[in-house]
Amino acid sequence: MNSRRTFLAWTAAAPFLSRLSRPSLAARRFDPSFGTASEALRAIREGVISSRELLEHTLGRIRKYNPGINSFVTMNEEEATRRAREADDSLARGKNPGRLHGLPILVKDTFETAGLRTTAGAKPLENHIPKKDAAAVARLRAAGVLIVGKTNTPEFAGDTQTFNAIAGTTNNPWNVKRTPGGSTGGGAAALAAGFGFLELGSDIGGSIRTPAHFCGVYGHKSSLGIVPLEGHIPPSPGEPALPPDLGVAGPLARSARDLQLELETIAGPSRPDPTAFRWKLPSPRGARLRDYRIGFVLDDPFCPVTPEVREPLRGAVEALRKAGVDFEEGWPAGVNPGEMFGNYLVLLSASFAAHAEEEELETLRRLPPGPWGEYGKAWIEGKTMGHGRWLEESMKRLRARAVWQKYFETHDAFLMPDMFLPAFPHNQEKTFFERSFDTSLGRRPYGDLLRWISFANLTGCPATVAPVGRTKDGLPVGIQILGPYLEDATPIDIAGRMADVVGGFEPPPGY
Length: 511
Fold this sequence. Notes:
Shape: globular
Distance between the termini: 18 Å
Largest sheet: 11 strands, mixed
Oligomer: single chain
Radius of gyration: 22 Å
Number of strands: 15
Number of helices: 17
Strand order of the largest sheet: 1-3-2-6-8-7-14-15-11-9-10
Strand content: 5-15%
Low-confidence stretches: 1-20
Mean pLDDT: 93
């Protein structure tokens, strides 16, 4: 940082800094391109960098690198600059800053943002400008963030890749010929490339965790219902949010600590519930890795994992074992992965029933026998089943949650793959269940992408994805940490402590 920038930063925060002899070493070492949100906030508070300088640095990176990635649907430069100036002025006057004061962040384009276009990747919403913020966005704004822009998503967040007719295709910064995943793919790619410090995402089918795995960042699928979904699309703008049964909102970041920072900001009951209810994040069950008893399965006929993913996962488990983690391999008693996945798939398809077109159902009916046809059959069942069948499937879901909660009485977490393969080449032909791709284990149906992520969505349990290594081709690999229902801090804490043993986020080459 040149002397002029340093002088301006110190001058803007002079009243606050009068209580300090000098910035801490940690603050002075802050990396404005790939530092964590927590580090950025410390650097702002201690005057190493101003909010406006940090925003300008971030916008400069976006101008330079985003053309090759295409992370954004809509930028918010003018408002973010104004808010950055206000944040610096507030700090200079000695006002008590918000928890995320002056921090440049990203918001998935499925969350409504007052005065800022929100499309959910859907052509009918191409010019939709909401009048109010989604509940989670309002909480982030109240904490003092600067919203840099809205990140790209597939149409109505309905794919494990990120492309739509409005903003086009988002590329993975680790290899632009490959997908960053979906549906929070724009946000994960942006974080990996250093375009912001937090992302607000959502997850009904791995939409936070899959991009985290593909892009080498951290992602947290929160416990069902702890983060309000008011203002998320779908459902359509103006429609009340239904009580959640599978989908959640949650954070993505470049460190596990930042996941908790954002989660604590956005979680809690929404109106009118706060008149009677309060929410507090329970403390993690352990204070060090050796405090945890953890189960794991790294491969299974239920969804065979390719060797390029399995080997980094196994290396991470062995490193954790050497660090003192008490491990037990094998599925919990009562867990039948195939049955639980079938239960999830039918409920997932039911949640998308409102958007079903007869043409889509006819396409599913024409799928060939075998795995592709089985996926189509399950999807049709979910879209056409009556209320009685839905209640039956919901009871299965509650039994599945009970099985996992019983397991978590004696275990603290469960490790498994997030995906059976690393980020794959863009594959936008045909419809979701008609697609396939070749892997080192042979040809696989696209629907297999939903298998390993299904347990957390089905049961409502929290799940954190943490980077643990790379394939021989240099693509990121993440591990999924399933935790006890409502105890989100436990898998997040394990993810953070894992970084000390196996490493954490690393920037992709060339950025």
